[in-house]
């Protein structure tokens, strides 16, 4: 495989991480492309003035009617991971560019996709050949190492597998335009995630692997969500109550929980950092819970969360790095609690 210098890389923001008009407009001005998961996200981007050719319909789970609508709206890039979806794309979006998502054999990330998406690596090339034969434009292979992926080697493995796909396609006279290395770039949260590898570390791994395993003419697409917006948000919450449970553990109840913004605390996957007005006072471990009557609305009971022992109802508490996968995860009104509101007006409130 010929070696090369710096790899041409395009950034494609995963809109689902923060479907907020101001963010989309800023990233559009910066030259980003956009990964959209639904017709709703396509329309959101178009309303912000994003050109349709900068949109890629990256969700492999889509109805025929959604493909037809996306095509009518001008979207010309699609991801798929089954022949079934490929046939729907060929029928309702003729001639468009396609990426085939495969399930890279990588270490589990903090919020893994499991087996929900992606064909087997060895199915990728035959599916892309089929795409060519159906009159579609082959863009290339695509993988996502799982969100909040802490192991940079995951991208190396994915790129090595993508390289095999490129080689198999070359034998069929198909030149890969780009390899999509997905999102998954982590940000520093609490606990073990505080040591999350920096973007530059992962970029160096990606670049080395691309030089080693991919054809020189193939560009790269990186599709981050969390890494672009996670640290841009702070959730301003209030302590509703503090009590000692019958087992002796201290519980701190907040006015936000799993159903209004903190869905990623499911399985205690994402360990957010808290800042309180009483930081500096003595601390003790606490169970942290949301405000609803649902027994699952508990943010952390296995993860150690040290909080000031002086914390009281009415205290304000900030939850840091909540810019990704929060506001749009809010339920409409579970238990009557309103969804989160987003304030993009400027400096954080004190
Ligand atoms: C298709 C696709 N691309 C990119 C992303 C962004 O992932 P992350 O926020 O981990 O960077 C996601 C997240 O779910 C996704 O589903």
Structure description:
With 350 residues, this protein is α/β, with parallel strands linked by helices. The model has no long low-confidence stretch (mean pLDDT 95). Strands 6-5-4-3-2-1-8-7 form an 8-stranded parallel sheet. It has 8 helices and 16 strands. The chain folds into 2 domains: 9-230, TIM Barrel; 233-336, Lyase, Ornithine Decarboxylase, Chain A, domain 1, CATH 2.40.37. α4 links the parallel β4 (77-80) and β5. The protein has helices at 21-29, 39-47, 64-72, 83-92, 121-133, 153-170, 199-213, 226-229; strands at residues 9-14, 33-36, 55-57, 77-80, 97-101, 137-142, 178-180, 219-222, 235-244, 250-254, 274-276, 283-285, 287-289, 298-300, 306-308, 316-319. It binds pyridoxal-5'-phosphate. Pyridoxal-5'-phosphate (PLP) is lined by residues 14, 16-17, 35, 58, 144, 147, 182-185, 223-227. Belongs to the Orn/Lys/Arg decarboxylase class-II family. InterPro entries: Ala_racemase/Decarboxylase_C (IPR009006), De-COase2_CS (IPR022657), De-COase2_N (IPR022644), Orn/DAP/Arg_de-COase (IPR000183), Orn_de-COase (IPR002433), PLP-binding_barrel (IPR029066).
Distance linking N and C termini: 55 Å
Number of strands: 16
Ligands bound to this protein structure: pyridoxal-5'-phosphate
Low-confidence stretches: none
Protein name: Type III PLP-dependent enzyme
Domain Orn/DAP/Arg decarboxylase 2 N-terminal: 10-229
Family: Belongs to the Orn/Lys/Arg decarboxylase class-II family.
Cofactor: pyridoxal 5'-phosphate
